[in-house]
Structures are given as structure tokens and as C-alpha cells.
């Protein structure tokens, strides 16, 4: 690597490309999810590095060879961290998803505090830190993402490796009374304060974190009253800030007006006989509030029978963690609820709930967004929720209505133009849908224009720039284009 060259290094649990075993043959599949959507356009053609796990735990697989062509096309290096099946069970399915995920989403009764999970979590974090140390230099900016890898700065320091480090938590950070239930709470705080910047989705999340730090370090002080504050804990100083993640607005907006997708949108509306379409789109997860949403639709039809036959609720659930028993139970619960509501209210020619449990191509998803009159985005708790922003970007007609959970991080940004609801209040959600159904065009347009303007100006590039500016006093323009980058020889 050329001395003094600046590179952006992203470290996350998964790479933006995953290996899948299909019929005994390993293939490379582009990654999915909010993090990949957010950062792939940022690293593309900037010659950065992405460090993560490939998704394969078979030691005989030629991971680097399979990912080589993807890396060349993507415009940045991929560096893999090899994990065994046992490590994946303990670190990912165990500590990350049976401890941190439910606890940080205020669902502590779902936690499984297994000490073995914690030990494996630390072992895997050390593996990641070794790769970071090996493939980065002192001039690089190491940006670590999410709850899977909270110990990166701590382990780099323990190895005597000096790096500029930032951390961004994509999920909520809980209040102190919930965080204190974590048996390894102090260890987590010790690890997080080793980063130079700790970023969160909202100021509420940031403040929760600072309050937890203050609980363990009473002499802790903070300075500043904006989105970013400086935290001092004796001899240690770092910054903590709120950086609400976003989307590539233009990408979604342009797709929504592409001729083939306009035709898909028209066919969707025609298939539903041009009734008002209420849309829910979620990864299948118990934090997303899908059962509560279906029950709210049932309440809508009971409380406002005049809407019978005039609306269709379309719920798209993207498969997730299909091997986990809890998620199988959730899928069964949703299937039963859909059958119950359709059995109670449908009549020849009309079924109220259309439920799709499958992955959608990006073009099909955009067509659903563009076709929907109302987006019902009602997670029980969410770090941000990019579905809300994607819906607004795709609403080229500017006639849609966004009904949004007040417990989604997006609510802090979108509250002036979205209809906020409590997802546990079934009657409140039903009243919101009824009101949105009857809103006139002027009100709908005013609200949607406000939402689209906000998402357009606070897009993914704004998010990255705001984090880098606060963390390193730099921005995307400070990273050279790929043709000036001289990669290290593998």
C-alpha cells in the first residue's frame, strides 16, 4: 500500500457478498439488508476495504477465489474472516441474536444469557481485530458496524495497534434499567469507549448510552449540546453522536419512474381492482410487529365496516433465520392470523389480507412501494427503519401516506409529516388508517412532499459525510478514486 494513502475500511459481521451452497456448488450472492444498501454505493470506485464473514463455515471452500471477481467488479477489496460452525452458533446465533438483539429492542424476556455465548463472542471479535490489524495501516479510517463487533477498538488497543476507529450501532441502545440486565454490561461499556467515535441512530439512543457510561464512571463528563458530544472519562476522551442512516434517494426515485416498473405498478393496482392498497414490508422478525399489524387491520374492518371491500392490506415478509425455532413460531402465528382475518371478512371477489412470505427483487419491491396508497410501518422497536424512507422515495405521485411507529428511529426525523402511532394500540392504528384513507389529495401531497424533501436532502451520502466529518474531520471527497489506489499484493 502506498505510504500515507487514505482508505475507508468498513468492518461488519457480513461481507456485501455471501457464499451460498446450491446443489453442492458454492456460488456468490450479492448481500442484502440495510447496511449493504447503505455502504456499497459509498465504497464503490473508492478503493476501500470491507472486512467481514463470507457466510461459509466450511474450511475447504476457496473463499478468496470465489469472492475475487465480485471484489473486482465492486471496486473495493473484500477481506474475509473465517468462522467455524461452532463460532457462528455462539457468536452470531447465540450472543448477537439471543442476547444483544432482544435486549437492545426492549424485549429482555427473550434473552438467553448463556456464558458460553459471551466467550465465543469475544473469541470471534478477536479474530476480526486480527484481520483489521493485518490489512489496514495507520492512515486508514476503520469504521466498525453494529452490535456483532463492539470489541474491535478494545482488542486493537490490546494488541498495541493504533487506528482511527469509529463505531456505528444500527439498532437502538436501551435505557440504563434495561441495559443493566446484561451480565457483561461493564465489559461492553469498556469496549465501546475505546472507539474514537460511537455513533447512534437517534439522540435518544446516544443519551441512553451516555447515561450507562455515567452509571459505571460517575466522574464522566460531556461537552456540547448538538448531535455530537465529547465524553471524558478520566484520561479517556471520545465522541458520541446521532447519525440517522438513510438511503440512496435518487436510486429508488429513478427506479419508480422507469417504464417497466411503472407497468408493474399499474398491473399491481389493476390486480387489486384499484382499491386502496395498505402496504407492510418487513424482514420476518418479532421486533417488526407484523402480528400486531394484522390484528390492527382486523380492528379496522370491525370498527369501520364501510371500508370492507375498499382496501387491501398487502404484507411482504422477507424470510429470516428460518432455522431458528422462535422465527418458525412467528411464521406460524402470522399464517394463522392471516387465515383468521381473511376467513372472517372476505367475500367472493375480495380478500382483505394478501400475505407474501418471500424475497422480492428490487424492481418488484419498488413497484409495491409505488402502488401503495398507505405504508403501514409499525415496528415494536427499530433502530431506524429504511422501509419508511424507501416508500417515500418511490412515491413519485406524491399521494401516499406514511403511518409510522413512534418506536422506530425514523420517527425522530419524519414526525412532522408522518402519522405517528403506537403499534401496541390496535384501535389507534386502525383510526390512523381510516383517517389516511379519507385524507384529501391536498393534505396527502403536502405531507408526502415534506417527507420526500427530507429523505432527498438527508440521503445516504449525507449520512456517511456527517459521520466521517464528526469522526475524522474528513468526508467522501478526501478518499481518492480507485484508479489512484495501489492495493496491497495479496
UniProtKB/TrEMBL annotation:
The lineage of its organism: Bacteria, Pseudomonadati, Thermodesulfobacteriota, Desulfovibrionia, Desulfovibrionales. SUPFAM superfamilies: UDP-Glycosyltransferase/glycogen phosphorylase (SSF53756). GO terms for cellular component: cytosol. This is Trehalose-6-phosphate synthase. One of its GO terms (molecular function) is trehalose-phosphatase activity. PANTHER family: BCDNA.GH08860, TREHALOSE-6-PHOSPHATE SYNTHASE. Belongs to the glycosyltransferase 20 family. GO terms for biological process: trehalose biosynthetic process. It comes from the Bacteria. Pfam families: Glyco_transf_20 (PF00982).
Amino acid at each position: 500500500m502506498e505510504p500515507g494513502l487514505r482508505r475507508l475500511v468498513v468492518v461488519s459481521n457480513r461481507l456485501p457478498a455471501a457464499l451460498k451452497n446450491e446443489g453442492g456448488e458454492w456460488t456468490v450472492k450479492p448481500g442484502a439488508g440495510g447496511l449493504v444498501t447503505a455502504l456499497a454505493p459509498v465504497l464503490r470506485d473508492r478503493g476501500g476495504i470491507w472486512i467481514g464473514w463470507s457466510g461459509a463455515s466450511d474450511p475447504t471452500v476457496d473463499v478468496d477465489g470465489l469472492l475475487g471477481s465480485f471484489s473486482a467488479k465492486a471496486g473495493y477489496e473484500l477481506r474475509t474472516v473465517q468462522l467455524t460452525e461452532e463460532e457462528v452458533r455462539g457468536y452470531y446465533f447465540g450472543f448477537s441474536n439471543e442476547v444483544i438483539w432482544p435486549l437492545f429492542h426492549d424485549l429482555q424476556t427473550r434473552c438467553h444469557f448463556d456464558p458460553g455465548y459471551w466467550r465465543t463472542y469475544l473469541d470471534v471479535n478477536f479474530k476480526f481485530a486480527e484481520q483489521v490489524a493485518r490489512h489496514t495501516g495507520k492512515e486508514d479510517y476503520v469504521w466498525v458496524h453494529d452490535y456483532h463487533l463492539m470489541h474491535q477498538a478494545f482488542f486493537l488497543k490490546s494488541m498495541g495497534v493504533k487506528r482511527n476507529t469509529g463505531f456505528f450501532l444500527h439498532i437502538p441502545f436501551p435505557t440504563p434499567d434495561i441495559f443493566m440486565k446484561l451480565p457483561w454490561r461493564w465489559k461492553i461499556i469498556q469496549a465501546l469507549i475505546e472507539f474514537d467515535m460511537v455513533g447512534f441512530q437517534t439522540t435518544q439512543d446516544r443519551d441512553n448510552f451516555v447515561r450507562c457510561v455515567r452509571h459505571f464512571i460517575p466522574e464522566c463528563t460531556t461537552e456540547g449540546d448538538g448531535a455530537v458530544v465529547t465524553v471524558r472519562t478520566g484520561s479517556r476522551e471520545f465522541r458520541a453522536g446521532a447519525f440517522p442512516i438513510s438511503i440512496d434517494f435518487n436510486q429508488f426515485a429513478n427506479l419508480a419512474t422507469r417504464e417497466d416498473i411503472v407497468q408493474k405498478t399499474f398491473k399491481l393496482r389493476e390486480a387489486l381492482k384499484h382499491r386502496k392498497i395498505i402496504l407492510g414490508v418487513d424482514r420476518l422478525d418479532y421486533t417488526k410487529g407484523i402480528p400486531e399489524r394484522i390484528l390492527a387491520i382486523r380492528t379496522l374492518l370491525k370498527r369501520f365496516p364501510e371500508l370492507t371491500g375498499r382496501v387491501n392490506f398487502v404484507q411482504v415478509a422477507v424470510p429470516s433465520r428460518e432455522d431458528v425455532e422462535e422465527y418458525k413460531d412467528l411464521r406460524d402465528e402470522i399464517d394463522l392470523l392471516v387465515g383468521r382475518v381473511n376467513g372472517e371478512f372476505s367475500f367472493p371477489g375480495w380478500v382483505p389480507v394478501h400475505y407474501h412470505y418471500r424475497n422480492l427483487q428490487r424492481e418488484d419491491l419498488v413497484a409495491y412501494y409505488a402502488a401503495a396508497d398507505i405504508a403501514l410501518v409499525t415496528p415494536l422497536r427499530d433502530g431506524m427503519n429504511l422501509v419508511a424512507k424507501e416508500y417515500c422515495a418511490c412515491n413519485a405521485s406524491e399521494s401516499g401516506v406514511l403511518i409510522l411507529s413512534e418506536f422506530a428511529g425514523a420517527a425522530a426525523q419524519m414526525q412532522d409529516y408522518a402519522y405517528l402511532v403506537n403499534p401496541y394500540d390496535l384501535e389507534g392504528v386502525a383510526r390512523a388508517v381510516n383517517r389516511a384513507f379519507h385524507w384529501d389529495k391536498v393534505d396527502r401531497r403536502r405531507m408526502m412532499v415534506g417527507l420526500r424533501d427530507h429523505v432527498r436532502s438527508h440521503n445516504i451520502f449525507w449520512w456517511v459525510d456527517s459521520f466521517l466529518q464528526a469522526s475524522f474531520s474528513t468526508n467522501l471527497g478526501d478518499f481518492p478514486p480507485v484508479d489512484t489506489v495501489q492495493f496491497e499484493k495479496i
